[in-house]
Amino acid sequence: AQKITQTQPGMFVQEKEAVTLDCTYDTSDQSYGLFWYKQPSSGEMIFLIYQGSYDEQNATEGRYSLNFQKARKSANLVISASQLGDSAMYFCAMREGRVRSQGNLIFGKGTKLSVKP
Amino acid sequence: NAGVTQTPKFRVLKTGQSMTLLCAQDMNHEYMYWYRQDPGMGLRLIHYSVGEGTTAKGEVPDGYNVSRLKKQNFLLGLESAAPSQTSVYFCASSYWGAAGETQYFGPGTRLLVL
To answer: Are B7 and B22 in contact (CB under 8 A)?
Structure first.
């Protein structure tokens, strides 16, 4: 079974609108971390946001927020006020194990977001 | 502050040749990582380090070796390159702060093994 599932291979959003990228995860650990990354067509990998399993508040970073629903094992990324520069591939990832452990990051297959002007 | 840099940016090797990829960070981070990314996929962890002088295996360590002799540098070695090692290699470093973990990535190294 896949540990990280991103069900949207591709998505379109109108500029200035908000968009939600889905991510569900599967783990039996109580302690884990969830990550989102952006990879533009230029190829670099950009870390966006982190959510710890024990964090009660949803993580936010500028226009990015992580909608963390622990019971549903869901960690959706919300991008507010989309910009043309947001067009990229977005990856969700999980690291199992205790906080500050440096175990393996498991990645989803990604969602390609295209922002329309 | 250059962040995370990688050398070289692109390399072509013949099967059986060896090479070393260099990753350097100037942010005094303890944690450093080497990942590979194959077409249409996310990253897979090769090796990582939690501090100077320490390294550990990740998900796909076979065929690679690493060293962390200095805190700012993390070297990835291929002793005998194989076509299956054709990939894009990313180095990253991270730290833990009030908001949890924050990661920084290098620009990547494209490696083609013929």
So the answer is: yes
